[in-house]
Amino acid sequence: MAEIKQIMIICGEPSGDLNAGALAKAIKEVSPRIKISGVGGTLLRQNAQEIYCDIKELAVIGLFDVLKKLPRFFALKKLILEKIATEKPDAIILVDFSGFNLRLAKAIRKTIPTIYYVGPQVWASRTGRIETIKKYIHKMIVLFKFEQEFYKKYGVDVEFTGHPLLDIITADTNKKEFLLKAGLAEGKTTIALLPGSRKAEIENILPVMLLSCLLMKNKIVNAQFVIAKSPQVEWSIYQRIVKGINLDLKIVEGQTYNCINAADFCLVASGTATLETAILEKPFIVVYKLSLLNYLLYRPQVRLPYIGMVNIVAGKKIIPEFIQFQATPRNISEEALKILADSNRLQEIKKNLIQVKSRLGEKGASLRAAKTILNFLKK
């Protein structure tokens, strides 16, 4: 049985870096001598010997963003293929980032074991990609039980290992201490804004959230607001958007979980953050906006009645969603105020979030995924 010496991991977005970093750490715990290289961000870098490209400039939203960055993606694909040819890793692990990673898998053509961790959401849109997965991916590792059932129907070698967020998410500062450090008051109603982790998301979503907060401020005595800033996005983007907004408002970088934990209510961009907020059991509303052209291109491909992952996992709408044309300050603020004024509804939301949390599997997901991958490779 050949020794596994090197594994290459490829991700392209902050959420992918979160999962890739946790997976790489678990692989090193199981087998410390394995060299890990690849494409990632700060978290993957912590457990990798070599990073060929940082993800900071790779995240895209919609077709037009992709078209702008095509030369960069072509150059990155060429670089990775050259590294595979020269370094001859024992396996490549693709993490999310499906637009790029599936094309990379086609180019690799199963010449080395190719594993997909956090696979494409083909159950939500673009089901034609399932044929590409069957043809070019040796093994799928998924985060949700329903994904395993979906892929099995198509004959894909798939395993459910649970969601790594259960191990990752924790508030390392209590509410009182966080509010003090952030310059916020302990006795006020705190509303956290999580407008996304990409520049385009923040430019589309944060202005709507802020206008919603201005309307809420008129109805909530002593309301204060905190923005969870993504380390991937420049301060100048946030400062430009909040300029002139008359709110008791703070921006805090790299402390998303502490922001959520300290909040009484949250406004959250659709994505991984909806699960992060659910795990911390905070009531929230999902808000999402794309540019109009990207929305018109994307919407016909979506086959599900909701887009928030928390609602998809629940199998019903437990959290209100305001998407695109419905994402108006009036709609969002009115719904938030209704929830905050209704103790029974707040309790119902918390109960539903606990159920969602239970459906994410048990703690130790990254370690289970690492062991599954290493056992698969040894076979």
The largest β sheet comes out as: 7 strands, parallel
The portion of residues assigned to helices is: 40-55%
Tell the overall outline: globular
Which percent range describes the beta-strand content? 15-25%
CATH topology of the largest domain: Rossmann fold
Task: Provide the gyration radius in Å.
Answer: 21 Å
Strand order of the largest sheet: 3-2-1-4-5-6-7
> How many alpha or pi helices?
18
Characterization of the model:
The chain folds into 2 domains: 174 residues, Rossmann fold (3-Layer(aba) Sandwich), CATH 3.40.50; 184 residues, 3-Layer(aba) Sandwich (Rossmann fold). The mean pLDDT is 92. The chain has a 7-stranded parallel β-sheet with strand order 3-2-1-4-5-6-7, sandwiched between helices. The chain has a 6-stranded parallel β-sheet with strand order 10-9-8-11-12-13, with helices on both faces. Strand 6, helix 7 and strand 7 form a beta-alpha-beta unit. It is of the alpha/beta class. It is built from 18 helices and 13 strands. The relative contact order is 0.13. The protein is globular.
Name the features:
379 residues, alpha/beta, Rossmann fold, 2 domains, seven-stranded parallel sheet, 18 helices, 17% strand, globular
Can you describe this structure in just a few lines?
With about 375 residues, this protein is an alpha/beta fold. Helix content is about 50%, strand content about 15%.
Write the layout of secondary structure elements.
Elements (H helix, E strand, L loop, with lengths): L5 E5 L3 H17 L4 E6 L1 H4 L4 E5 L7 H7 L1 H18 L3 E5 L2 H11 L5 E4 L11 H8 L2 E4 L2 H9 L4 E3 L4 H4 L6 H8 L6 E6 L4 H19 L5 E7 L5 H8 L6 E5 L2 H7 L2 E5 L2 H8 L4 E5 L3 H7 L10 H6 L6 E3 L5 H12 L2 H16 L6 H14 L1
Parallel strand pairs: 1-2, 1-4, 2-3, 4-5, 5-6, 6-7, 8-9, 8-11, 9-10, 11-12, 12-13
